[in-house]
Amino acid sequence: MSPRTPPRAAFTPAERRLIATLHTPRQVQRFLREFPYNWEKTLRTFRGVVASGRAHCLEAVLFSATVLEQHGYPALALDLESQDGLDHVLFIYREEYYDAAKARAEDKEHTAEIRVAKHRNGPVADLEMFFHKEHGRFRDLDRRHASAAGS
User: Residue 122: is its pLDDT beyond 70?
Assistant: First the structure.
């Protein structure tokens, strides 16, 4: 954990139990999908999301970052604003960023899982993308070899 990561003692016993049960990005996403979408103009933290039982996309990312940070996954999120002014916030998980040896063993080098845990008007999804580190680009995974060659 980084020095900015809150210590476990900063959480209530109930929060610590919740964090302990959600130790992978997929588990966090499944948990959040059970929550109703928060239509209020709020910006709740992990604690606020737990207390209210609802979250919009940015609140879901803050919740995810807090939980996963406790398991050694530094937060990596992306906020995209669409032409209609809506934000779409994504949580990005790259195995090689957290554990390069495991990524190589599982053939996950240069891949990223994009988790859309909450979406105001549309579907949620798990997307696996090719990540071209040298250019900071994401591409469809089925184009992995073409992307690696720089095309």
Answer: no
Rounded to two decimals, the pTM is 0.67
Three-class HEC string of the chain: CCCCCCCHHHCCHHHHHHHHHCCCHHHHHHHHHCCCECCCCCCCCHHHHHHHCCECHHHHHHHHHHHHHCCCCCCCEEEEECCCCCEEEEEEECHHHHCHHHHHHCCCCCEEEEEECCCCCCCCEEEEEEEECCCCEEEEHHHHHHHHCCC
CB 103 within 8 A of CB 95: yes
- Only one residue has tokens 């995810």, namely 64
Residue 119, pLDDT above cutoff 70: no
Question: Is the pLDDT at 43 greater than 80, yes or no?
Answer: yes
Domain ranges of the chain: 8-148
